[in-house]
Amino acid sequence: MDDLILKGISQLIADHSGLCIRLQDFQLLSDKVWLRARVLGLTSLADYYDYLKALDHNPRVLGRVNPRQPRSEWQELYSVLTVNESYFFRDSNQLRLLSDRLLPEILERKLATAPLGSKPRLRIWSAGCSTGEELYSIAIALDQLKFPWHQWDTQLIGTDISTAAIQSAQAGLYGSWSFRQTPADLRQRYFQAQGQVYKICDRLQQQVVFQVGNLLQDPCPNLVPGQGDLDLILCRNVFIYLDRQAIGQIVQKFHSGLIPQGYLLTGHTELYGQDTSQFQVTSFPETVVYQKPPLPVLALPTASLAEGLRRGTANPQPSHLPPPPVLPSSSDNLEAALQEAAALLKQDDYASAIRAAKQIYQAHPHCIAARKIAARAYANTGCYSQAKELCQQVIQNHPLHLDMHYLLAQIAEDENDLETAKRHLRKIIYLDPDFVKAYLDLASIYDRAKQPEKAQTTREHALLLLSKLPPSQVLDDHSDITVVQWKELLKKQAVSSDRQ
Q1: DSSP states of 292-305 as a string?
Q2: Given CA atoms 467, 473, 475, 478 in this order, what sign does their dihedral have?
Q3: What is the C-alpha separation between 196 and 347, in angstroms, rounded?
Q4: For 48-207, where are the E strands, in sequence order?
């Protein structure tokens, strides 16, 4: 009889939350349900089953936990059913992908598309956040990227079905076991010791919000009406506890909550067998990433830049932030002024190009394109310190401008600083594996460093990428060498290397 009652209780739990309780776990379920039944003064599992059925199943509005407000029996039950096992920087590979690639790309895109005169918005949701370590890890990752919190409209939101877990997350207090994969310098920087525990620093704690939330029944987080569109959803190690139907419903909810080009990250295999056709699915070495496709009518202004970098073609017109109101300058039109400076650079009139570009970015401090023109002109005149400073200014706030990494690599190579050159080229390849010129330059550096095996492997990869391009295509506007000529040159170098 009790087995039938437990089956009924497990079905109520699945209907309410999607949590799937296996037959082999019924004894554990029985122990926990009896615990709650005794607290309520009930004398049988059947009475507890009837009690759950009588509860109001209407979706609740997400909100902060109020310690003075009695918790519902569903909240009490989930607090004993769920396992709140988490720690900081869990799955370091996924976090590295976020820090090195996804977060910088999101930030650059939001900067480029922010309405003039308003702060860019960032929305990140940790769904099934447990006791908060994951969301705080994301806040730390942003801070490590020198994220200017005060210049952005930011909401980092964590939700969990367990009220006890949310209350723990809001307290921000963690024992040493939560830091088992945390570098010591980060714990020292972002946490303060309080007896036997550590407290997250107030500066980051103020940036996050934690809410009780049922993924199956509750709406997506929406703290400010009309501003709930999400750039990134993390839902890791949650779906393993849910039934297949519930997972499908929640994935559809995630898709609806994301903005175009927003990302969803889950555990490594949690969505295998699910319908993810509404997402663009990309497999990185670190993990599989699900991205909501862009709207065709809203092509981003940086699309030509990304495509140019991917193909290794001539430098396209760089993107820049929406400029402030036009100030008096050498041109009444910012775009015309940029075209004039770019033309001077192409004509090898570097001094004039520098003067024109400086006038632009002094009048328009947010204009990235002018700094790029000046950086190239300085580099071409051998003024490497000025060129490097401008490159770093661009990269500091816009890490995905790979042409600046490439210029820094070329400067380092000219200065015979091969390790710095290799570091920038590897960064480019990591961010864009199809950047042909990075492989060509890296192979040359390996030759200079007397590393023939690495040079050969890099040439082979470059040849593979070149084979995908039109034979007559020219890789950049600084040389007339075509793809087919590059392929012939690389093959000759490979033969020469074999003879040595």
Answers
A1: PPPPGGG--TTHHH
A2: positive
A3: 66
A4: 121-127, 153-160, 173-174, 191-194, 197-200
Q: Which residue has the tokens 């199943």?
A: 57
- Is the distance from CB of 48 to CB of 33 less than 8 angstroms? yes
Phi and psi for 360 in degrees, rounded to 5?
Answer: -70, -55
Distance separating alpha carbons of residues 308 and 401, to the nearest angstrom: 11
For 23-59, give one letter per residue: b (16+ CB within 10 A) or e. eeebeebbeebeebbeeeebeebbebbeebeeeeeee
Tens of pLDDT, residues 223-263: 544 445 899 999 987 887 777 888 888 888 888 888 888 89
Q: CB pairs under 8 A, 24+ apart, for 354-358?
A: 354/378, 354/381, 356/330
Look at residues 259, 397, 252, 386 and name the one whose alpha carbon lies nearest to residue 319. Answer: 397
The structure tokens listed for 62 are 């997400």
From the CA atom positions of the chain, what is the Rg in Å?
A: 28
Tokens 């040079």, located at residue: 455
Structure tokens at 373: 């023109």
Distances (CA, A) of 75 to 30, 46, 133, 162, 204: 17, 20, 21, 6, 27
Tell me how far CA of residue 124 lies from CA of 148, 258, 322, 487, in angstroms.
16, 10, 24, 44
* Structure token pair of residue 57: 């199943």
Q: Which amino acid is at 273?
A: G
Q: Which of 309, 326, 419, 429 is nearest to 372 (CA)?
A: 309
Place of tokens 């609806």: 256
Could you list the pLDDT tens digit for every one of the 500 residues in the chain?
Answer: 567 877 777 778 777 776 767 666 677 777 777 778 888 888 787 888 888 887 754 333 333 333 333 447 777 777 767 666 677 888 788 888 999 999 999 998 888 777 777 888 899 999 988 888 999 999 999 999 999 999 999 999 999 888 888 898 999 999 888 888 888 889 999 999 998 899 999 999 999 999 988 888 777 675 544 445 899 999 987 887 777 888 888 888 888 888 888 899 988 777 877 888 888 888 887 888 999 887 643 333 333 333 443 333 333 333 333 333 333 344 347 888 888 888 888 887 888 889 899 988 888 888 888 999 999 888 887 788 889 999 999 988 788 888 899 999 888 887 778 889 888 898 888 888 888 888 888 888 888 778 888 888 888 888 888 888 888 887 765 566 788 888 887 777 666 555 55
d(CA 70, CA 73): 9
Q: Write out the H or E segment, with its range, that includes residue 54.
A: helix 45-54
* Domains assigned to the chain: 2-57 (no CATH), 92-298 (3.40.50.150), 319-400 (1.25.40.10), 404-500 (1.25.40.10)
